[in-house]
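Hi support team,

I'm opening this ticket because the web form for multi-chain structure prediction keeps timing out on my end. I have pasted the exact lines I submitted so you can reproduce it. The total is 516 residues across four entries, so I didn't expect it to be a heavy job. Is there a limit I'm missing, or should I split the entries? Thanks in advance, R.K.
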Amino acid sequence: MSERVTGPGEPTLEALRQRLVDFAAARRWEPFHTPKNLAAALSVEAGELLEIFQWLTPEQAAAVMSEPERAHRVRDEVADVLAYLLQFCTAVGVDPLEALAAKIERNEHRFPVPEEPADVNSDVGDQPL
Amino acid sequence: MSERVTGPGEPTLEALRQRLVDFAAARRWEPFHTPKNLAAALSVEAGELLEIFQWLTPEQAAAVMSEPERAHRVRDEVADVLAYLLQFCTAVGVDPLEALAAKIERNEHRFPVPEEPADVNSDVGDQPL
Amino acid sequence: MSERVTGPGEPTLEALRQRLVDFAAARRWEPFHTPKNLAAALSVEAGELLEIFQWLTPEQAAAVMSEPERAHRVRDEVADVLAYLLQFCTAVGVDPLEALAAKIERNEHRFPVPEEPADVNSDVGDQPL
Amino acid sequence: MSERVTGPGEPTLEALRQRLVDFAAARRWEPFHTPKNLAAALSVEAGELLEIFQWLTPEQAAAVMSEPERAHRVRDEVADVLAYLLQFCTAVGVDPLEALAAKIERNEHRFPVPEEPADVNSDVGDQPL
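Hello R.K., no limit was hit. The queue was backed up. Here is the completed structure from your submission:
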């Protein structure tokens, strides 16, 4: 899928990050939001996303969004992962968009696009690193 | 920290998501980018971020960005987590910003802000769920 | 595979657990071995085991032990996961064999064996929980 | 804690591994128990164990077993992690005790015990790797 996934009238990542800051402050949760705790929570939520898929065949996994209850869980866990990632970034002062842009640039050098396919009969590239 | 973390002239989340789509397509990595594989990769990268913190005391963890080598690793792992989250969202057709906005709204109802503190001597709220 | 996997002349789980206690004590690592740190380390190592499989097709994954370098990594990560699990159990005073025996008994009640297959044409049971 | 954690009259690790083989066979779960699925399930369960600790202070984490409901969850997640580790070992034909014994021997060479402490005023060793 290469079509647009995020919509034009949406909140920005920065606006959502700020809402999460305000949300935690209003509930006085900041003392819990240490970098180490948030890294643990992020890992836990990524595990919950993976749990949805653990017993699914590739075919079932590909159709996960056509089953309403599973689709809801997927969206919910995506939100949790993104929330903890943003809260972690707040706690350590890292700009996630800048970090990702820098990483993509490094990867474009590390994994140059092959000039022409090594094997013209293959339509699959080498395994990602 | 409540100051702005993402900068004004930055690429948007959607622009980075699209760059990742193009990056994978140019290297013919799409066959590997199934929802199940990407959920696994996301979980693996979240583990690598946690690894930085696993033996650190709370004090060392709070100062993680003042140590250049660790700071670089933190930015790198944040980028990897965000990259796989965006690629996962592409694979399943989920808008991560919309999913997070919806979740924040649900959480604002689930965890209402206490009218006044139960214990005025406490400056820490109940443990987050 | 239902044949014996652990050999008769081997060290017991308890003997290995005790060796890990002595190993950490000799290096004065006990202060790092808190329950929380060890739970994080266990999760990190489980992620490293998963990493070996993240891009493999089911066929490649099934043949993982026929590739010597991957087979070594698998054994190494199995050892790391078991080491941190045993160290975690030491830190919290839980007997892992007793915990597992109790859990298997609970699961035998929760998931009774079907008297006869609901669908005689199916040779796959319901998805595990 | 260096006292014995596993009891003398207990089932062995091998006996429990075999019970898990029989348990899965009786419910016809073997088709789900591929190495890749089991590595994912192991990682998910390790995340559930970590979840118990994610917001706890070091002091609360140290006292986790004195709170009956948390203590039950800890035992339950330890059992789940060990169960999936044993099922993974069955699927790939790895002997977990042998793998751990070999790893401990490698680590004894990699991390020699310091002859005498570098800093006699310190009672904490270098951070584990």
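A quick check on our side: Helices of chain A lie at 13-26, 35-53, 58-62, 68-92, 96-110. Let us know if the file doesn't open in your viewer.
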